[in-house]
Amino acid sequence: GATATEASAAGAPDEAAQDALVRRFVASQSHSLAAQTSFAKAFGLAEQVQLLEAERQALSSGAVDVSKMKKSVSVSEAAQAAIDERVAAQPELSAESKQYYTEGLVSLIASAAEGQKLSGEASNFAGGMKNLGAAQMATLGRKLVAGAWVAKESPGYLKGLYDTSKSAMTFARASKIKVPGNADAMLDGLN
Predict the structure, then answer these.
(1) pLDDT tens-digit series, residues 139-183
(2) Predicted TM-score (pTM) of this structure
(3) How far from each other are the two terminal CA atoms of the chain, in whole angstroms?
(4) Are 142 and 67 in contact (CB under 8 A)?
(5) Segments in the chain forming alpha helices (H)
(6) N or C, which end of the chain has less CB nearby within 10 Å?
(7) CA distance 167 to 79
(8) Distances (CA, A) of 28 to 13, 113, 119, 126
C-alpha cells in the first residue's frame, strides 16, 4: 500500500495530514493566545487574562475538534477587541507593563512563525480536498472535518494575525518598547 507521504504527495489529504494541520493551527493559536495574555496583563485587563489562560489550557489538553478551535478563536477575537481599545487610548505603560508587552511580542513572533508554515500546509490541504472524488468525499469528508475547517479559516486567521502583529509593533515603537529584531522579517513572511 501507499505510505501516508505518498498519499499526501498524490494530493488527497488523509488523517495524518489533518492531524499535522490541526497541530500547526493549535501551535500558532496557542502562541497567539499567550501573546494576548501578555498584552492583557500589560493593559490591566484581568478578566481577559483569565479567559485567555483558560482557553490556552483547553486547547493544549486532550483532542482538539472544530468546536474547541472555534471557541478559541472567538475568545481570542473578544480579547483582541479589548486590547485594541486600550491601544487606541495610547496609554503610558509602566516598566512592568512594558515587560509584559515585550513578552507578548515574542509570543506573537512565535505565532507568526507557525502561521507561515500553516499558510502553505492549509492551501495544500484545501487543494487536496478539491481533488477528492464524490465517493472519497463521502467516506473521507466526515473524517477530515477539522482539517477542512482549518484550511478554510486559515487565510482569514493569518490576515488577522498579520494585522494584529503590525498594530502591536506600531504601538510598541510609539511607546519606546523594544521590538524583537526578527519581527519585521517574520511578519513579511505572513503577508
Answers:
(1) 887 889 999 999 999 999 999 999 999 999 999 999 999 888 888
(2) 0.89
(3) 39
(4) no
(5) 4-9, 15-42, 46-60, 66-88, 95-131, 134-143, 145-174, 183-190
(6) N
(7) 15
(8) 21, 8, 11, 18
